[in-house]
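Hello forum,

I keep getting stuck at the same step: I have a sequence, I want structure tokens, and every attempt I make locally crashes halfway through. Rather than fight my setup again tonight, could one of you with a working pipeline run this one for me? It's a single chain of 467 residues.
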Amino acid sequence: MIDRPRLLIRGGTVVTADTRFSTDLPTTDILIDGETIQAIGIDLPLPEGQNVEVVDAGGLLILPGLIDAHTHIQLDTGIYSTADTWLEGSQAAAFGGITTVVDFATQLPGKSFPQALEGRMAEAAPSIIDYAFHMMVTDLPPGQEEELGVLPELGIQSIKLYTTYRPNYYLDDAAVLRIFETAARYGLLSLVHCENDALVTAQTESLVKSGRLEWRYHGASRPHLAEIEAASRVLMLAQAADAPVVIAHASTERTVALTTHARTTRQTAFVETTPQYLLLDNTVYEGNEPWRYILQPPLRHPAEKEALWTRVADGQVDMIVTDHCDYKKAQKLAVNNFTKTPGGLPGTETLLSLMATYGVAEGWIDWPDLVRMMASNPARIYNLWPRKGTIAPGSDADLVLFDPAGEDIVTAESLHMVAGYSPFEGMRVKGRVVSTLRRGAFIVRDGVLAAEAGTGAYVARKPRFWD
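Reply #2:
Ran it on my machine without issues. Output:
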């Protein structure tokens, strides 16, 4: 084992979810010993007689390492596979200030949960960032629900369910309800992709029958009502089961409103959204490159962006995630048919810069809000707290040194994701990740990759029983 010197990060502006942020905050020092934060303070003295490396953070913000709680690195759906490996995917995330992801282990039909996790752990072994997994439940017939009881032993605290994608992942209401009931008894949190499968199927079949298969019809194939109805139904089922639930990637403000209302009845319910729904809209399907924007749910009416931002600004959105899927440009362009194009967008590397620019700089949120939705809330909700998601003595030294004055333009050539395109191509961003530390070690330093493959680690999570 290499004996690393202590690190003293000197003179940065520390931002946590609890910071009362202003531009004239006093600068702060952070002393790191091994993998954890030892001390935080103003003008910390150098420990005597010890090997300490001093890192100048003057002019920089120091944020907790981001937690992207919804990613699909090295995804294999059984139909399509993303082009990235875990090494490539984790490197791109690190350049974006992400130090931990909660990705997915898929229990395919005929597989046990331990087998699903074992296979995913082998794939993730080269990662340079830390990782946890939601267990995607696709095959749990009546009478076998108690198999969920093994998940806490595997370090898994959350499961993923789908109300669409028949027959691959789809679960009907009866299955969702009985899984909710059992998951709650084991302290498991359910993350649910909400779209009404019958509405999506009917609309898609109508488009196919009329020969409207081009990419530009993708948005019309999955109407916003499909999401809103399914989210309402899932929240009702979760309430009946007394089960905690997360509504995945809300694309409409009504979905957020439904979750907010559920909380007023003391229901444990959370909601996430993504940069694509906050920054893009369905007018792109009429543009020259609609292939860039094939995702589920699709992009919505332009008015939804401001409505969603208003919900974010009001504190009604718990997490901003990416739903990252790094399909290559060639895969997207293979055939101009939305029913045969893999759905999902690359996004880990651009998450922080986009939200810093169009969230903070535009005045929708402040820096502590960004940290809350992209670090501390994911850590609390998915039981990584206080090891992850904050800057405090005893916490993992997962840090981002961020230059708020940096300016860039998003281009595929400047990114480390393998897609070869970005849905945010050409957008101006203000702010730049300078360095990223994971458990006290630089994984990106001064804009240069600084970590070896396999230095990331699996983070086991305990079940949580909500009050």
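Residues 65-381 form a domain with the TIM Barrel fold (CATH 3.20.20.140). If your local run keeps crashing, start a new thread with the error log.
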